[in-house]
């Protein structure tokens, strides 16, 4: 089949006009005085139309746009984008164990692949890696060749973002506009700005989430029955507690704040993770390591925007659906319960099977809570819990340190 392609040089941004099958026509330009150009190319298969369009755009584009250097620039920018995205994807997948971020980065990378083989062929033909004048040029910072993981995330994000901006500009040149979508490139760049922040935040919180294991002690002010919050917390820490949470439902925030500050100082001194239950204002005021929210508290996605990017957010859950929703919205860990009947809080008992199902369903630490004591803590660990939250068994003990030490020993004994 033969084709007639009508191209309007007065409106190059409109790209190729109609492609019409017909008999042999002129394979040359109409005189320059004419605004329209007839071009015919003979092909035998409609599948070759993309190649015809590329050939036409190449011949019709301005001479300065068709140099090998421009094709090399586009090729290099596509490569830099893919390389940066692949690094970020591997960090999300293997180091942060984040399936949602991994999927987003993988889709982003695949959506930028050049699907037109003829265009890809031109890019490969003009590639000249050994002749790149930028090869071997390094600034002082690059020569040091020393980066931590956060710096590498930022560097590779910038690499991809800058390359995307270059591609976006070149997509406005007629010979590249058919193969590079300016709007798509711009949206990808802005999406990557958001992903960079999420990756950096996850990494900054990883050290804290890695410490969410073992015995998680909840200091409930009402359950202390007049005893010193600092004394009980110190004994719990000396007994092996890895996390201290402050919980109170009665005191006004003005009276709770100095208590929160006391515990923050102790936990910082002992290098123990410090969590505030419910109250974001208190957590921010004392610079706690994290905030724990219930199902009826402020939504996690909203809370994430309010707190520093390195602050851990936990969420109470009792079903797989709740746990998955919490993680999808930014929770760094989930508390699951009540596992057993509890004297500190009236709530539905969901049992060990529910704990196991939730552990299998989410990629974040799982903290079991509700009625846990020295007689059943081993079962909690066997069911998959990363940590066991304890209230009554410690708050009511005459010697909290001794109780926590025994709980720690039994929990860690299960492998």
SSE arrangement:
Elements: E1 2-8, E2 19-21, E3 36-42, H1 49-60, H2 68-95, H3 99-111, H4 117-126, H5 140-144, H6 149-170, H7 174-177, H8 182-209, E4 214-220, H9 229-238, E5 243-247, H10 253-270, E6 273-277, H11 280-286, E7 290-293, H12 300-306, E8 312-317, H13 320-328, E9 333-336, H14 351-361, E10 366-369, H15 377-382, E11 387-390, H16 392-395, H17 400-413
Parallel strand pairs: 4-5, 4-11, 5-6, 6-7, 7-8, 8-9, 9-10, 10-11
Antiparallel strand pairs: 1-2, 1-3
Report on the structure:
By secondary structure, this protein is α/β, with parallel strands linked by helices. It has three domains: 2-60, no CATH class; 66-206, Up-down Bundle (Ferritin), CATH 1.20.1260; 210-413, Aldolase class I (TIM Barrel, Alpha-Beta Barrel). Helices cover 50% and strands 13% of the residues. The protein is built from 17 helices and eleven strands. The strands form two sheets. The chain has an eight-stranded parallel β-barrel with strand order 4-5-6-7-8-9-10-11, surrounded by eight helices. A three-stranded antiparallel sheet has the order 2-1-3, with no helix packed on it. α14 (351-361) links the parallel β9 and β10 (366-369). α2 crosses α4 (117-126) and α9 runs parallel beside α17. The longest helix is centred in the N-terminal third of the chain and has 28 residues, at 68-95. It is elongated. The model is unreliable at 1-47 (pLDDT under 50).
Which structural category fits the helices and strands? Answer: alpha/beta
Uncertain spans: 1-47
**H/I helix tally:** 17
Assign the CATH class of the largest domain.
Alpha Beta
Helical percent range? 40-55%
> Largest sheet, order of strands side by side?
4-5-6-7-8-9-10-11
Question: What share of residues are in beta strands?
Answer: 5-15%
For this structure, the CATH topology of the largest domain is TIM Barrel
Oligomer classification: single chain
- Based on CA inertia axes, which overall geometry fits? elongated
What number of domains? 3
Distance between the termini: 72 Å
The overall pLDDT, averaged over residues, is 86
Radius of gyration: 31 Å
Question: In total, how many beta strands?
Answer: 11
The CATH superfamily of the largest domain is identified as Aldolase class I
Main β sheet profile: 8 strands, parallel, barrel
Which series of helices and strands comes N to C? EEEHHHHHHHHEHEHEHEHEHEHEHEHH
CATH architecture descriptor name of the largest domain? Alpha-Beta Barrel
């Amino acid at each position: 089949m033969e084709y007639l392609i009508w191209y309007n040089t007065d409106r190059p941004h409109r790209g190729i006009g109609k492609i019409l099958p017909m008999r042999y026509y002129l394979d040359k330009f109409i005189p320059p005085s004419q605004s329209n150009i007839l071009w015919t190319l003979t092909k035998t298969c409609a599948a070759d139309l993309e190649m015809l369009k590329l050939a036409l755009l190449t011949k019709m584009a301005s001479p300065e746009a068709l140099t090998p250097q421009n094709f090399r620039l586009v090729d290099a920018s596509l490569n830099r984008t893919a390389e940066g995205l692949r690094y970020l994807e591997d960090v999300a997948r293997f180091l942060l164990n984040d399936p949602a971020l991994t999927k987003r980065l993988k889709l982003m990378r695949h959506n930028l692949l050049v699907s037109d083989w003829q265009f890809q062929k031109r890019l490969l033909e003009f590639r000249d890696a050994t002749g790149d004048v930028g090869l071997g040029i390094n600034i002082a910072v690059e020569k040091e060749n020393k980066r931590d993981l956060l710096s590498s995330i930022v560097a590779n994000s910038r690499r991809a973002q800058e390359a995307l901006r270059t591609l976006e500009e070149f997509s406005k040149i007629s010979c590249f506009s058919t193969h590079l979508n300016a709007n798509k490139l711009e949206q990808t760049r802005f999406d990557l700005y958001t992903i960079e922040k999420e990756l950096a935040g996850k990494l900054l919180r990883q050290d804290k989430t890695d410490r969410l294991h073992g015995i998680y002690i909840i200091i409930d002010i009402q359950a202390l029955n007049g005893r010193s919050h600092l004394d009980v917390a110190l004994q719990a820490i000396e007994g092996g507690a890895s996390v201290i949470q402050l919980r109170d439902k009665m005191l006004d925030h003005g009276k709770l704040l100095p208590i929160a500050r006391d515990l923050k100082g102790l936990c910082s001194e002992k290098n123990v993770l410090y969590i505030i239950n419910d109250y974001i204002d208190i957590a921010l005021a004392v610079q706690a390591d994290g905030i724990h929210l219930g199902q009826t508290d402020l939504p996690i996605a909203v809370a994430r925007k309010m707190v520093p990017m390195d602050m851990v957010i936990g969420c109470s859950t009792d079903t797989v659906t709740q746990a998955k929703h919490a993680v999808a919205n930014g929770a760094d860990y989930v508390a699951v319960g009540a596992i057993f009947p509890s004297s500190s809080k009236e709530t539905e008992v969901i049992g060990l099977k529910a704990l196991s199902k939730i552990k299998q369903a989410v990629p974040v630490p799982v903290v079991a809570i509700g009625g846990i004591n020295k007689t059943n803590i081993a079962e909690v660990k066997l069911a998959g819990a990363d940590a066991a939250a304890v209230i009554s068994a410690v708050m009511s003990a005459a010697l909290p340190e001794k109780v926590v030490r025994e709980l720690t020993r039994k929990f860690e004994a299960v492998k």
